[in-house]
Automatic annotation (TrEMBL):
Domain of life of the native organism: Bacteria
Annotated protein name in UniProt: Electron transfer flavoprotein subunit beta
Gene source species: Paraburkholderia unamae
Record domain Electron transfer flavoprotein alpha/beta-subunit N-terminal: where: 23-211
Family: Belongs to the ETF beta-subunit/FixA family.
Keywords: Electron transport, Transport
Pfam families: ETF (PF01012)
Length: 249
């Protein structure tokens, strides 16, 4: 069973992002970039399926500029077998990425496609769902457990206040939630090995996909700063403020 995993290069989760002065977006100059954390979980899950003998090959794909090769190498250091870069400098919206992934599904015919539930830069939570619709495949989003039983995928999903287990016919699309697994650290030998693994490059034009944006960002603003605190002289004043000003008691 071939597994395809989508990995996005995003601003590292520990970076405090700055909004550009003209409000047109986030400043990416000299900012540390990393693999999207949910995609790292997706790669780990695919590699575990391979280690269990369930998957035969793990292919990772990233869409974006040439620097996404680094993201693919990170995924290959975790254990993916090969990478595909869909190279473009265009700003990619989830629908464009879903169309690119659909074109790759047509070429690669994976039985399982694993994506992150969301990219931590745009927080869209759309690509997996759009891909499932475009490829007409069953989907299980927010997965916290994935098993392949009798040729079907059994996926436990994190839903409000509990868990739901669904069974999907393969081929299928799964998106990962945080508790699915804890990704391993890539060891130095595996990082070295990953440098030699095959990495193919293609383009949206070669895949026949028009990635022209359909949305325009009107403005981007920083979150409001926290208001300064006040000191109160006694408990009675505190209680009065909580009651009358904050209205929380
Ligand atoms: P989003 O819908 O943007 O929140 O992204 C959800 C998931 O889609 C991510 O966790 C990735 O698995 C995948 N994805 C989104 N953008 C890209 C991209 N440019 N390249 C590869 N995978 C992507």
């Amino acid at each position: 069973m071939k597994v395809l995993v989508a990995v996005k290069r995003v601003v590292d989760a520990n970076v405090k992002v700055r909004v550009k002065a003209d409000g047109s977006g986030v400043d990416l100059a000299n900012v540390k970039m990393s693999i999207n954390p949910f995609d790292e979980i997706a790669v780990e899950e695919a590699v575990r399926l391979k280690e269990q003998g369930v998957a035969s090959e793990v292919v990772v794909v990233s869409c974006g500029p040439a620097a996404c090769q680094e993201t693919l190498r990170t995924a290959m250091a975790i254990g993916a077998d090969r990478g595909v870069l869909v190279e473009t400098d265009a700003a990619l919206e989830p629908l464009a990425v879903a169309k690119l992934l659909k074109a790759l599904i047509d070429k690669e015919a994976p039985q399982l496609v694993i994506l992150g539930k969301q990219a931590i830069d745009d927080d869209c939570n759309q690509t997996g769902q759009m891909l499932a619709a475009l490829a007409a495949r069953p989907q299980a989003t927010f997965a916290s457990q994935v098993e392949i039983v009798d040729g079907k995928a059994r996926v436990t999903r994190e839903i409000d206040g509990g868990l739901e287990t669904v069974q999907l016919a393969l081929p299928a699309i799964v998106t990962t939630d945080l508790r699915l697994n804890e990704p391993r650290y890539a060891t130095l030998p595996n990082i070295m090995k990953a440098k030699k693994k095959p990495l193919d490059t293609t383009t949206p034009a070669q895949l026949g996909v028009d990635v022209t944006p359909r949305l325009a960002t009107l403005r981007t603003v920083e979150p409001a700063g926290r208001a300064a605190g006040v000191k109160v002289p006694d408990v009675a004043t505190l209680v009065a403020k909580l009651k009358n000003e904050a209205k929380v008691i």
